[in-house]
Amino acid sequence: MKTILKNVIENNRDITKFGQVATYIPELAKGNRDALGACIFDTSCNSILEGDYETKFTIQSVSKVVTLICALIDNGKEAVFSKVGNEPSADPFNSLLKLEIQENHKPLNPFINAGAIVCTSLVSGDNGIEKFSRIHNMIKKLSNNDDIDVNYSVYNSEKLTGNTNRAIAYYLKGANIIEKDVEDILDTYFKSCSIEVLVEDIAKVASVIANNGVAPWSNERLIPEEVNRIVKAIMTTCGLYDTSGTFSVNVGVPAKSGVGGCIMAVVPNRMGIAVVGPALDKHGNSIGGVKVMEGLSRELNLSIF
Ligand code: GLN
Q1: 10-14 CB contacts, 8 Å cutoff, 24+ apart
Q2: 64 belongs to the catalytic site
Q3: 144-160, pLDDT tens digit by residue?
Q4: What pTM, to 2 d.p., does this model score?
């Protein structure tokens, strides 16, 4: 498996030249466009690292999975889906387009920015500090890494420039979808996106989801079974924004991407995979990451379909 991972990464290195690092969050423009690395962490705790696996990155939209897990645990399925839908969106991740025409102005799903801002508002805690601490503790547990922290340069950069997200959040407040202080919720959202990790951390998070919500290293249940099932379903239908269908056809596993260049993938009952490649395609998905996942799916027969 190590050789397969190494070859798939090396065979796809050149494609990173056709992508661009995210620049709309200025600090992300400093990402290494050429980097490509991955980790496979299986449900028996074997860890395989290849390529530029030492590249640190911020999780960005991969945090939406952790936020959804917290929101579902803290509120239950009915309460969450009364405020956010579970249908795929054919629009970019930061689109405001459908908010006005959607029934009750509900965002389409928890993995576009609007839906993740709603989920952030639902995470338990009286203020942003408590809400963020809930999300932060959850990712520490899911990755078995207590040292995970925020990259404050990215956080400040995003907070300073995140005006589209601000527009989304104020619209949702006006539509009575989110309650409490909008800036506080945005602050928690920006901080969650700015959590800095390595591929091994994210492959471990994915391995818990692959293992039906139970940590492979301790046998402790970290995610209730029903929540875990819902999260896998939404990752499959909405995880790569408006390219989720193509990813399902070409790779065929629940996954979530982020503009920091990560793709987190869950191979049910087998393994968690994380790829990092900061050069993105025009949809905001890691251009090399998608190709690595396609190669791995072919070589290791990963598709669930
Ligand atoms: N923090 C980013 C944003 O809100 C996350 C987007 C992403 O990774 N797709 O724009």
Answers
A1: 10/51, 11/295, 12/36, 12/288, 12/291, 12/292, 12/295, 13/288
A2: yes
A3: 999 999 999 999 999 99
A4: 0.97
